[in-house]
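Below is a filled-in request sheet from our internal design queue. Each sheet records the structural input a requester submitted and the sequence that came back. We keep these sheets so that new team members can see what a complete request looks like end to end.

REQUESTER: design group, bay 2
PRIORITY: normal
MODE: inverse folding
CHAIN LENGTH: 332
BACKBONE (tokenized):
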């Protein structure tokens, strides 16, 4: 039996093995991904992002328990570019997720980046695909921070939760970083702490600033048009709801999960589910083409020539554009 076939048959060890192969960017991993691809496209992919300490892991834990209570199979991955695989933060997350340990309807896997952020986004996309093919109904992806990696991972998700919490002094930071633009659902966690009102108010006014910009994906500056299979009437605009939660005690989780479900229904109804799916695949395809072309090209250029051009660049003898033209010729 191939690795992919074992995964489709529900073999958890095979699943764990493939995730390692993917992290190591191996050919065997890619071959299994190719085989699994036809079985993807069903899972609800949910991204959970926000600053460190806002309670993302605690929320993911609670949400997973909630979805399990509804008989859904749940896969969880935590992406932490700053910490190595065995690093403190990731281990801490694993300990907190102990409520779910031993449940065969749950699979938890932490990931650390090797190499570039682009590589991390690709690996995360691959991991989500594997969980999807393996039959998990919900895939929760926790990411730290407010950088490009989070935006990339939001593109991967159908539904993105942005988590804030009072008392961290970074509300403005996250809003500045434009993270609200990727939010489908906003969460003020640690609602048991003083300052939750202020955090919610700050979010609400930032949200009003961002509104009424339609929440659609743009590609190369052009709105993508995909024929919706659903009803002809245009779907109403989705306005990100704000939820208060106490992840440690479970407060507000049912309401939050309800919003997540409503968002999925909204995407399906309006045809945005297909749009996001298509955009995600196109972005992945683009990024793979770029990576492959650059690799092929670099293999053809001797290091000496490459280094000479870099040298000429830093000496300001040629501009970056001229450097590219020297190597690749002028575009027609
Ligand atoms: N008071 C309070 N503490 C919380 C809440 N949610 C999480 N915490 C605590 O905040 C800390 C960080 O939580 P964690 O889930 O690891 O945050 P993450 O870094 O965003 O994943 C932990 O000590 C949690 O126990 C909450 O709703 N209220
Ligand atoms: Mg965490």
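RETURNED SEQUENCE:
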């Amino acid at each position: 039996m191939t690795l992919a076939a074992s995964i489709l048959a529900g073999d958890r060890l095979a699943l764990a093995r493939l995730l390692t192969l993917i992290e190591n960017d191996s050919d065997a991993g890619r071959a299994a991904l190719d085989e699994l691809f036809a079985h993807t496209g069903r899972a609800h992919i949910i991204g959970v992002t926000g600053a460190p300490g806002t309670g993302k892991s605690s929320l993911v834990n609670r949400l997973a328990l909630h979805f399990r209570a509804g008989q859904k199979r749940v896969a969880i991955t935590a992406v932490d570019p700053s910490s190595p695989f065995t690093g403190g933060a990731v281990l801490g997350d694993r300990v907190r997720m102990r409520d779910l340990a031993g449940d065969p309807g749950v699979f938890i896997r932490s990931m650390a980046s090797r190499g570039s952020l682009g590589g991390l986004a690709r690996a995360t996309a691959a991991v989500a695909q594997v969980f999807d093919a393996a039959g998990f109904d919900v895939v929760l992806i926790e990411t730290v921070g407010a950088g490009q990696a989070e935006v990339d991972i939001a593109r991967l998700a159908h539904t993105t939760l942005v988590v804030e919490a009072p008392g961290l002094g970074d509300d403005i930071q996250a809003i500045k970083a434009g993270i609200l633009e990727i939010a489908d659902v906003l969460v003020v966690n640690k609602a048991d702490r003083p300052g939750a009102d202020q955090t919610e108010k700050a979010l609400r006014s930032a949200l009003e600033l961002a509104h009424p910009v339609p929440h659609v994906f743009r590609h190369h500056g052009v709105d993508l048009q995909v024929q919706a299979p659903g009803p002809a009437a245009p779907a109403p605009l989705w306005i990100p709801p704000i939820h208060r939660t106490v992840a440690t005690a479970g407060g507000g989780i049912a309401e939050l999960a309800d919003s997540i479900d409503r968002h999925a229904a909204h995407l399906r109804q309006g045809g945005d589910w297909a749009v996001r799916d298509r955009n995600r695949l196109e972005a992945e395809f683009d990024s793979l083409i770029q990576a492959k072309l650059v690799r092929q090209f670099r293999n053809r250029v001797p290091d000496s020539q490459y280094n000479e051009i870099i040298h000429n660049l830093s000496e300001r003898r040629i501009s970056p554009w001229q450097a590219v033209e020297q190597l690749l010729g002028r575009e027609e």
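SHEET NOTES:
- Residues 272-300 form the longest helix (29 residues).
- Residues 96 and 309 are 51 Å apart (CA to CA).
FILED BY: M.R.
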